[in-house]
Amino acid sequence: MNLSDKELLQKFRDALARRGGRGIAGLQRQFKIADDDHSMSLDQQEFVKAIHDFRVGLSDSQAAKLFKIFDRDSSGHVDYDEFLRAVRGEMNPQRAAIAKKAFKIMDKDGSGQLDINDIRQAYNAKMHPDVKTGKKTEDEVL
Q1: In this structure, what DSSP letter does residue 71 have?
Q2: Residues 59, 19 share a domain
Q3: 76 and 129, same domain (yes or no)
Q4: Which residue has the higher pLDDT, 39 or 31?
Q5: Fewer CB within 10 A of the terminal residue: the chain, N end or C end?
Q6: What is the CATH classification number for the domain harbouring 101?
């Protein structure tokens, strides 16, 4: 059976959901289970093994195709961010608009990147409980 990229992703998402992998914590747990060598990434062999272990119902060639979809940077490994992005999918337009608005508010210098100076201008860490108790400095909290 020839499945599209979208259909392959959906089969994988459904299999993870059946295993309790809907939320971020559940997805992280599933990723750690699949990461046999504890490298914080999955090579193609670990990924294909996970496909079989999670009973997704894909052939080895379909699993290899899905691996290429997950491996966005073509490094030969799927790190947790790539895994999460593929499983969770894109933000809906409303969430994306809110995130862009929040980013624009935070990006005080208009550089298109958030750095510690932008964050320092947007947030006052003095009232954070850990700063108040002396456990952390303001910079650590920021």
Answers
A1: -
A2: yes
A3: no
A4: 39
A5: N
A6: 1.10.238.10
